[in-house]
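2024-03-11 09:14:02 INFO worker-7 job=invfold-0412 stage=load source=structure_tokens
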């Protein structure tokens, strides 16, 4: 599969592990407040989160991920998606003229369960470029909405080693996801420890904001008037649980808007925190809501 691909994703697309995500994908790990343990990306040597995978399955996942410069693991096929998020990601890729391979995870339970552990990403779709995880639906659609998706895929695939003529357009994204203890953890920690007092003050402020309420939602707009459909969907999902929660409008404070991305190691909004730990963004919230696990995650059930 070849094609003209597309701005480089932020240093990490990896979902920081949390107690809630552990319940979803079977992995535990430290949360944002704890400096992050656990998370790992889809790297050639395997991810820290995939330690329990059978070696043969791990090898198969790596081969699938690298079978196309841009590879989409989805529910259904591009011409017949079987969930709204998969359909939206396909549309976003087609809109930027990106050729991509695809794999229907509904047709293979081993791949469906194994890839969640391998990538430490608990939902589908999952988009890979140059063998590295870009992220799920909320990240891909955010990049598309910002006009960054095409260049991101171009940069990601252009960085990959070209081992054969067939792989000439199949290069590797620089650190779309990172093993724990390396760049991803370092990126999160750099925002928390900082090189100066200003970063320390911002870290303290972000920690205070994320623990302002047991359930804390950072969105674009307000609870009464969300400014984007992802924030609107997150508010609706939380409202349905009946759980009390507070919100923070990231449009009202540029320092928080940019700083929280680094602090949480999560590049888009909304962001949901429970007990000071990141649960995830729009696609993870929607997945939890669809499986009736969101109420439990926020402490209602």
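2024-03-11 09:14:09 INFO worker-7 stage=emit residues=301
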């Amino acid at each position: 599969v070849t094609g003209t691909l597309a701005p480089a994703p932020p240093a990490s697309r990896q979902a920081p592990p949390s107690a809630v995500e552990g319940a979803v994908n079977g992995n535990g790990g430290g949360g944002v407040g704890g400096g992050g343990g656990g998370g790992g990306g889809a790297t050639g040597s395997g991810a820290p989160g995939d330690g329990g995978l059978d070696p043969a399955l791990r090898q198969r996942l790596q081969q699938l991920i690298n079978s196309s410069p841009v590879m989409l693991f989805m529910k259904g096929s591009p011409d017949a998606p079987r969930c709204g998020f998969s359909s939206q990601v396909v549309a976003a890729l087609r809109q930027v003229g990106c050729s991509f391979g695809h794999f229907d995870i509904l047709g293979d339970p081993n791949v469906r369960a194994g890839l969640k552990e391998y990538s430490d990403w608990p939902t589908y779709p999952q988009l890979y470029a140059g063998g590295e995880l870009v992220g799920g639906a909320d990240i891909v659609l955010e990049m598309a909405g910002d006009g960054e998706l095409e260049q991101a895929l171009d940069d990601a695939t252009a960085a990959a080693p070209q081992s054969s003529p067939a792989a000439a357009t199949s290069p590797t994204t620089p650190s779309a996801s990172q093993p724990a203890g390396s760049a991803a953890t370092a990126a999160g920690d750099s925002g928390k420890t900082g090189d100066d007092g200003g970063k320390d003050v911002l870290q303290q402020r972000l920690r205070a904001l994320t623990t302002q309420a047991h359930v804390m939602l950072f969105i674009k707009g307000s609870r009464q008037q969300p400014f984007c459909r992802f924030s609107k969907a997150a508010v609706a999902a939380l409202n349905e649980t009946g759980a009390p929660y507070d919100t923070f409008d990231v449009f009202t404070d540029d320092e928080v808007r940019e700083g929280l991305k680094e602090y949480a190691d999560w590049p888009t909004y909304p962001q949901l925190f429970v007990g000071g730990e990141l649960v995830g963004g729009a696609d993870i919230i929607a997945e939890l809501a669809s499986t009736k696990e969101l109420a439990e995650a926020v402490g209602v059930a």
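2024-03-11 09:14:09 INFO worker-7 stage=report msg="Residues 1-48, 163-194 have pLDDT under 50 and may be disordered."
2024-03-11 09:14:10 INFO worker-7 job finished
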